[in-house]
Amino acid sequence: MKSLILGSVLVVSLLGLIIILFRKRIGLSFFTSFGIHLVLAAVGIYIVNYSGWITGTYIPLNPATIGTVSILGLPGVGLLLGLKISLFG
To answer: Where do the TM regions start and end (predicted)?
Structure first.
């Protein structure tokens, strides 16, 4: 029952987002901008992980971390590093 409710909420949310997207006629510029932000976020995290600036820290490349960095930009990488150092020492 719980999975049915969660699945229906997901479907309704997805349909609502699609309706808003086509009603506003955002176009391809939104998708290209969003794609560029995702790629730059992944590259930023990759550079921090493998540059050796801060040894002993590793930020995993997953949707949560890439989403944080793509929304917050470069300060998002600093936020993730600060959380990683403060929470996991």
So the answer is: 6-22, 34-52, 64-83
